[in-house]
Amino acid sequence: MPYRYDVEVVGLLASPAHRWDGRPDPALAGPVERTDRVEVRAGLGIVGDRYFGRPAHRDASVTVLAAEGLDHLADELGSGPLDPLAARRNVVLRGAEVEALRGEPFSLDSGEGVVVLAGGRPAHPCAWLDLALTPGAHRGLRGRAGVRCAPRSDGVLRLGPAVLRTAVPLDPAQAGAAVRPAPRPPTGRGSGQRSASV
């Protein structure tokens, strides 16, 4: 992959259980799990995470988020700093245009070998983020809540400096910027246009 970027891994999460299963009271959910190192297995996910080895999640078992998205959200909502791990993403990067990795292969090397990931669909925010982060987070993170990825190699990620390589160029200045869906073209209904007969 020809494009190289120096980034920082600022958060890592391997959660053995769904934190918001059954809509718990945030006060009863306990502290956010934190780790300084995770093991990634090709085709399976992150060792110790609830999605590890689950067939329905193999193409989306690792989630990656740009920390800058939370910085922008905090500024917009006036909430003060937000805990990046409270967003429940496995890997939180600073300095990477994560949303541009949808559908793209990329790799991360934090010093213990290269981890290859296949970027997939967006990791849409869930309603619980209004409780976990701050009121308004669910709506505010739309288009910048990260990317679901499939692990393509075994490796280890750890907190600290890392190298991100991609097949496509990225713009680090756009890290955390929201990607909005393209507007739908008019259907012709209600516009006075008639569809052609076949």
Describe it:
With 198 residues, the chain is mainly beta. The protein has a 7-stranded mixed β-barrel with strand order 1-5-4-8-7-6-10. The chain has a 3-stranded antiparallel sheet with strand order 3-2-9, with no helix packed on it. It has a single domain (3-174), classed as M1 Pyruvate Kinase, Domain 3 (Beta Barrel), CATH 2.40.33.20. 10% of the residues lie in helices and 28% in strands. The N and C termini lie far apart (48 Å). It has helices at residues 67-77, 129-132, 137-140, and strands at 3-12, 37-41, 45-46, 62-66, 91-94, 105-109, 114-122, 147-151, 155-158, 160-166.
Query: What is the CATH superfamily classification?
Result: PK beta-barrel domain-like
The third-level CATH topology is: M1 Pyruvate Kinase, Domain 3
Rounded average pLDDT: 86
Q: For the CA atoms, what is the radius of gyration?
A: 18 Å
Give the domain tally: 1
Q: Helical stretch count?
A: 3
What separation lies between the terminal Cα atoms?
48 Å
SSE series: EEEEHEEEHHEEE
Short account of what is shown:
The chain has 198 residues and is mainly β.
Question: Main traits of this protein?
Answer:
MOSC_domain; MOSC domain-containing protein; seven-stranded mixed β-barrel; catalytic activity; MoCF_Sase_C; 198 residues; pyridoxal phosphate binding; 28% strand; M1 Pyruvate Kinase, Domain 3; single chain
Write the layout of secondary structure elements.
Elements: E1 3-12, E2 37-41, E3 45-46, E4 62-66, H1 67-77, E5 91-94, E6 105-109, E7 114-122, H2 129-132, H3 137-140, E8 147-151, E9 155-158, E10 160-166
